[in-house]
Amino acid sequence: MSHHHHGPGCSHEAHDHDHDHGHDGHDHDGPDRGTEYSLWRYINIDQIRCLNEQVEGSAKKVFRPWEERLDEDKYVESDADEQLLIHIPFTGQVKLKAIALRCRPDETAPSELKVFINNDQLDFDSAESTEPTQSWELVSPDDVVRAMDAQGGVVEYPTRVAKFGAVRSLTMFIPANFGADTSIVNYIGLRGDFTPLNKDPIITMYEAAANPADHAPIVGTDPLSAQKPGL
């Protein structure tokens, strides 16, 4: 497993535009942030799958309300090596605008993130060989505290929104960290817009409207006189 994905410039791309006003609570820690990071409500939590998590079910706990992002007791840690693969299905369709991460300021912090949309079949081998929808080099432990201070306790990585306009599921692949045997992530926030899927009601209404045509009266009979209650 490689540990060389921590180029000197990766921290600046993520937060330079924020650092001048990083302690402005209105921008980074106000009520709007909780609204922006509300996509956790639309994750099918029970169906989250994580490969190589040390404690089964722990990945489900890192997707939680913005107000709980600083909870250090909930985290996912990798098991056999530093890699994690988390599959996140939504209950509708999402336009994903940004991913926010809260990690520890040490070598357990992931150094790289690759994400794939609408691909339910990925494992570690296919995630390594498949072109991701987008990838990021993540902020190094030396810079992560400053970056999190500037952004309300997380580091935000914007997406190329044009590629994330119709997301039914998201798979997050962490291939490497900054040198530790295992990787740890404390919080994952997803910012964007949610659209419910209306397929079932539309189908039901269509079938209801079609039923009378399916049962047209036989030619030459009067549908009213053909019904003779009591006889």
Automatic annotation (TrEMBL):
<feature type="domain" description="PITH">
    <location>
        <begin position="28"/>
        <end position="210"/>
    </location>
</feature>
<dbReference type="InterPro" id="IPR010400">
    <property type="entry name" value="PITH_dom"/>
</dbReference>
<dbReference type="Pfam" id="PF06201">
    <property type="entry name" value="PITH"/>
</dbReference>
<dbReference type="GO" id="GO:0005737">
    <property type="term" value="C:cytoplasm"/>
</dbReference>
<feature type="compositionally biased region" description="Basic and acidic residues">
    <location>
        <begin position="12"/>
        <end position="32"/>
    </location>
</feature>
<protein>
    <submittedName>
        <fullName>Galactose-binding domain-like protein</fullName>
    </submittedName>
</protein>
<feature type="region of interest" description="Disordered">
    <location>
        <begin position="1"/>
        <end position="32"/>
    </location>
</feature>
<dbReference type="InterPro" id="IPR037047">
    <property type="entry name" value="PITH_dom_sf"/>
</dbReference>
<dbReference type="InterPro" id="IPR045099">
    <property type="entry name" value="PITH1-like"/>
</dbReference>
<dbReference type="InterPro" id="IPR008979">
    <property type="entry name" value="Galactose-bd-like_sf"/>
</dbReference>
<dbReference type="GO" id="GO:0005634">
    <property type="term" value="C:nucleus"/>
</dbReference>
<comment type="similarity">
    <text>Belongs to the PITHD1 family.</text>
</comment>
